[in-house]
Design a protein that fits this description.
6 strands, about 140 residues, Thiol Ester Dehydrase, Chain A, 2 helices, alpha+beta
């Protein structure tokens, strides 16, 4: 598959997103909505969700949102993580996690996105700020 904007579907899970089970339900340059069904494959040894799962979800969600914005504005290219600061606020062992993104800054070279991860009751489980570097699309 070619690595260009025309062949890239933001709702098609691939790579780590597919392995984790992250599903994008809506995405555009203003934000993203997605879900992850937490199960034992996401746990650390003590039976709660591993913090790396939240970090990975945050970077994926922010990168997809940033990519959409780059395409919608005509700037083009892709966005890759430059910094990921994730706070783990509550622990969960199972259930559906809802993921949403909000832009903080969108520029020609860098973007900053907030990512909120909440449980089915609306409790904020983790919150991230992800800074992304805008780059040219990598060659296939």
């Amino acid at each position: 598959m070619e690595n260009n904007a025309e062949s890239f579907s933001v709702t098609e899970a691939r790579g780590l997103d597919k392995l984790l089970g992250f599903t994008v339900t809506q995405a555009d340059g203003n934000g993203l909505q997605g879900t992850l069904d937490i199960n034992e494959t996401h746990h650390q040894p003590f039976g709660i969700t591993h913090g790396g799962v939240y970090c990975a979800l945050a970077e994926s969600a922010a990168s997809i949102s940033a990519f959409c914005w780059l395409q919608e504005t005509g700037i083009g290219g892709a966005a890759v993580g430059a910094n990921n600061s994730t706070d783990f606020l509550r622990s969960v062992s199972d259930g559906v996690l809802s993921v949403s993104t909000t832009p903080i800054h969108r520029g020609r070279r860098q973007q900053l996105w907030q990512v909120d991860m909440v449980d089915a009751e609306g409790n904020l489980i983790a919150q991230s700020r992800v800074r992304l570097q805008n780059i040219e699309m990598p060659a296939s």
